[in-house]
Amino acid sequence: MNPAQTAERVARESYGRLLAMLAARTRNVAAAEDALADAFAAALSAWPRGGVPEKPEAWLFAAARRKLIDSARRAQTASAAQDALILTMEELEEMGRDDAPDRRLGLLFACAHPAIEPSVRTPLMLQTVLGFSAERIASAFLMEPTAMGQRLVRAKKKIRDAAIPFDVPEPAEWPQRLAAVLDAIYAAYGVGWTDPLGADPERRGLAEEAIWLGRVLVAQTPDEPEALGLLALMLHLDARRYARRVGGRYVPLESQDTTLWRRELIVEAERALVHAARAGAPGRFQYEAAIQSAHAARAIQGVVDWGAVVLLYDALARFTGSPVARLNHIAALARRDGAEVALAALEALSDRHPQLGEYQPFWALRADLCGRAGRKHEARRAFLQAIERESDPAVVEFLKKRSAEL
Amino acid sequence: MKYAVLVYETADDFAAREDLRREAYWGGHGAYVAMLQSTGAFVGGAGLAPPHAATTVRVRGGARQVLDGPYAEIKEQLGGFYLIEAANLDAALTWAERCPGAETGSIEVRPMLEM
Description:
The structure holds two protein chains of two kinds.
Chain A: H1 3-24, H2 29-50, H3 56-75, H4 79-94, H5 104-111, H6 118-130, H7 134-140, H8 145-161, H9 174-193, H10 206-220, H11 225-239, H12 241-244, E1 245-246, E2 249-250, H13 263-277, H14 284-296, H15 298-301, H16 306-320, H17 323-337, H18 339-352, H19 360-372, H20 376-388, H21 393-404
Antiparallel strand pairs in A: 1-2
Chain B: E1 2-9, H1 11-16, H2 22-38, E2 42-47, E3 55-60, E4 63-68, E5 77-85, H3 89-98, E6 106-111
Antiparallel strand pairs in B: 1-5, 1-6, 2-5, 3-4
């Protein structure tokens, strides 16, 4: 590995760990980021000449810490703040590289704090824990880089000025706060998932990074059932990455070639899910992972247990109250009880939630069910509605083809 | 760190200061102050007269404008504030949650600038 590659590997693997350590005391994420960027720049100029140090992370931490202390000294103005600043610097100086606790979990919780606006939590996590640039995050979230940059700066200022702690919260607050962390990681995964082939370079790797965050979380809270559930869910979905598109064509789950599924990810997902179940505390992510697990069984048993999928989606819909979960429940119901039963359920659902009429999967499901029930005219109309609401060209192609085959 | 805990109250909260609920109202705040003091978190604070007593002043183009009423006509009005000492935002939010005004009104938590 050449020095540039080593720096890149260290950046990927330790960015969040280093940043969390640097910012934990001062809570000044922006200053820690600047110091870390300087340290990486210094490494890229020093390592090719003098060789890569034995412990590159320790080298980077020391360099960044020096930068941080230098800039803190320069920034000393008000005398009242000085004592606190000196204390902070001394603590930072004492903090060794090897015995320092992993502060990334604290950083994750700071990013997902309820005092941070929900829509900025995921981007903030991507930037602070994974070192993504504002431009890259903006592109993945389909936003203007300047606007995204401003929102990130505002969030970091809030962390600093309101003194949002870098700690794992108290047990009483744990469920609500953990849920925010899980949601933010899953949102990052979702942004990557919508671009399965990585055609968009800005989104490439976002799904992997989200899985990596999931693993960090599980490593630090090994028995937390919903964290395990989220990891299992993401691994199951990611195992099918290469089967979802074949030659640029969209392939729905039921038609996917299971030999293209990545077994090692499925095995890891199943292990996490079994571990999660030991706690006996089911939650949204465990239900979703269990549903994906039932689909994954097709790779081994050749068939999907639709009865189990129906029950799991029903449990998920009851648990979350989500009309989207109910929609998926109806899709599974069609496999178990037939299209007519499912169509009646779909009608009742859209009466209760008229906003589903703006949702592409609603029309795709309706089209599919009408087609199965022999109502060709209605099916074609529903396909048109679905196509109108779909932005992915591969899915549009798929829907057109299905409509033409009626 | 020091935080201002700003207590925004509804019209009904303000009414509770004087009607049959007054003992519960003032007792609640008294107990809250005692709790803050016993843990060393109390820095200061004050209750404010209801918004009908408020007058707002602005100077525009060198001329003083005096208006009857509070800064903004909203459903909840600033009824008082506490200044507290807390380790971080989470600790401050815990104090805010215990404030008697939290159940009917809103509590804004704002860090104080270091002077």
